[in-house]
Amino acid sequence: MLPVRRKEDRADHIYRVAAEVMCQKGYEATSMNDIADAVGLTKAGIYHYIRGKEDLLFQIMGFGMDMVDEDVIAPAKEIEDPEERLRAIARRHATRILEAGGAVTILLTDDMHALSPAHSRAIFDRQRVYLQFIKETLVGLAAQGKLRDINPSVAAATILGMICWLGRWYNTNGRMTAEQVVRDFVEMVMHAVVLS
Amino acid sequence: MLPVRRKEDRADHIYRVAAEVMCQKGYEATSMNDIADAVGLTKAGIYHYIRGKEDLLFQIMGFGMDMVDEDVIAPAKEIEDPEERLRAIARRHATRILEAGGAVTILLTDDMHALSPAHSRAIFDRQRVYLQFIKETLVGLAAQGKLRDINPSVAAATILGMICWLGRWYNTNGRMTAEQVVRDFVEMVMHAVVLS
DNA sequence: TCGGCTTTACCGACCGTTCGGTAGAGAAAT
DNA sequence: ATTTCTCTACCGAACGGTCGGTAAAGCCGA
Question: Which residues on chain A are in Cβ contact (under 8 Å) with B28?
Fold first, then answer.
């Protein structure tokens, strides 16, 4: 492992590596030694930078949420038309997951149960905001008479599921480019809920 | 806990309870004491019926696979028309998951990494057979010119993801009947891939 | 009395975490 | 220029606790 000068770089490096390992093996199955080995430090060494294992997971989830807020929700909020907004959500989030696996994928796993009640609710609330944003977009679609005869809550949850599931199998499928997968994926999401 | 007479009943009971607990907390986060308490025995007591923790997970996953084989794949194989077959797969699997959470839900989680290489491949192979069955159905759909302009592999993986994700949020949503959710869900799956 | 369940008691391994200590780069003092 | 001090970065070792798993003794119906 190359030497790292500034402390922030090292801490950031630990977060990124830990996100990678935890997403691949799961939170409970990942030991602090696993993370330490992946980083290139000793188990005791990384405690110089982090508060603890649970806090590490919390920071990673918050980081993933920040990415979704900035790269998905914020740009989508600029779009008025519900149909185009939904397409933007699906395309941007899918792209983010495929090209930057790590932290974004961990968003909705059941590893959340490992967090303390306070941290758990903090993350859960942010997830709920995102789900509500999708649901409101679908309601706007319904107001235009372009939503299929389906419950918006069920549709929103299903769409979010489709997005989160993307990061689970793409890494093993090496014969398709991310762009191709995203294109087909967005096509499916849109036709699943929009009348045609 | 009521007394159970026959040994097979007790073993079956342990499998069912363990599936419930493991699906809720995750494999690694579930201790043998958790399962023992839920069953109503001591940790040592349940070792009279099972070989070990990893084998318990393997048996549960195999049991879930058997349910899918019997209640989803087998009936769907009787249907010739690709569109009706796909609808049957989505409806039957979704119904199974919603009304019998437990073992079926665990099918495609990343808890699979906790299995030994041999067990892992055994389960993985059965998953691959199921995924291939869905993909072949989609190819049959394409032969009739009824499939959207999407890659069958991407579509099959996405559909399987939609199905598996169902069991993650329905339990928390108590305001809808399973039938209503299944109806909307099947509607979305079908329109996502079938030309209309 | 006998044999199948179930228990108590316990093991070695590993967990997350902490602590004492140290190598080495500067800053400060001489 | 040399010594001394200080601070960050990191490590080895060990802590209390929990893990999956086991041996052996006890309960109880036949």
Answer: 26, 28-29
